[in-house]
């Protein structure tokens, strides 16, 4: 049970991170950043965690018919002593219904066959869940890009990457770095860079996702504290929040690093809703509360006047109202090399470059 809960936590935190990446990339278009979109996108980039055959969250969202055939296959395998897949049981039934409807069509049987047609449609839908067709443009929100960006800052040479074409005609390069064992994911970092290739500069934001319970996050986990210190040193210590040029127009401070506590998914089949807040790392100490037992915690009621909601954060970053100061490629490369931002062993790192 504990292992199952850990797996659900890992998938849920990754799903939220991928969804936020989609919302930023589509400039807040929720119709193009649904949880299903995020599942498909995350499944393409991290199949061991969110792929069709591995994801617990995908399984509970399957139709009752698909679940039925999975159960039948499991019990039939036990009965016969050989492995039988759900698809092997399903395909003969589809053939039978198709054959019956073909007979009705050839004989011009005018009697009602709506029940047969309905059942066939249900079976075909189950087949697509068990054996999904290759992703089409409609199934994967972004199209794979064939053009390779010239002049884009290269981070992590040799690491696998995917390039996508964005709805507004821009491009997005994504790298996903993750623990060898998917269930070891205890947090997720989205590093999002908005590039100006001609000027060889970018603005960045780093968001760390951690699950909190009852909208309370204990600030005692050594791994969390170490990660926060690393992000704080990288962003705040290098004055990414301090502009070195005159600003034209209104904007928020150049905060570049945020903690994003994320509501825990109590069970795998509950409705997907997340209402986590984005709190600047520099404000954590000001917002934390000390419990009667002396435990430092972050509570929603205490941070909500300082933090940004998910919707506000995504809109403001897309509108260039939050995020780091403009950083040259040379400086950014030096920072990444010095601090090894993507070297954690228990964090999912989603590194996205928009250009």
Name the features.
alpha+beta, three-stranded antiparallel β-sheet, 355 residues, 19% strand, 2 domains, elongated
Description:
The structure is a single chain. This protein has 355 residues and is α+β, with helices and mostly antiparallel strands. It has 2 domains: 64-130; 142-354, no CATH class. It is 40% helix and 19% strand. It has helices at 2-25, 35-45, 47-50, 56-60, 64-80, 86-106, 114-130, 222-235, 284-287, 300-303, 310-318, 329-339, and strands at residues 143-144, 162-165, 171-177, 187-196, 201-212, 216-218, 257-263, 277-280, 289-290, 296-299, 308-309, 327-328, 347-354. Helix 1 packs across helix 2. It is elongated and about 80 Å long. The two termini are 43 Å apart. 33% of the residues are buried.
Q: Main β-sheet: number of strands, strand sense, barrel status?
A: 10 strands, mixed
Rg, Cα atoms, Å: 24 Å
The poorly predicted ranges are none
**What structural class is derived from the secondary structure elements?**
alpha+beta
Give the distance, in angstroms, between the N- and C-terminal Cα atoms: 43 Å
What is the helix content?
25-40%
> Which whole number gives the mean pLDDT?
84
The total number of structural domains is 2
Secondary structure elements and pairings:
Layout: H1 2-25, H2 35-45, H3 47-50, H4 56-60, H5 64-80, H6 86-106, H7 114-130, E1 143-144, E2 162-165, E3 171-177, E4 187-196, E5 201-212, E6 216-218, H8 222-235, E7 257-263, E8 277-280, H9 284-287, E9 289-290, E10 296-299, H10 300-303, E11 308-309, H11 310-318, E12 327-328, H12 329-339, E13 347-354
Parallel strand pairs: 4-13, 5-7
Antiparallel strand pairs: 1-2, 2-3, 3-13, 4-5, 5-12, 6-10, 7-8, 8-11, 9-10
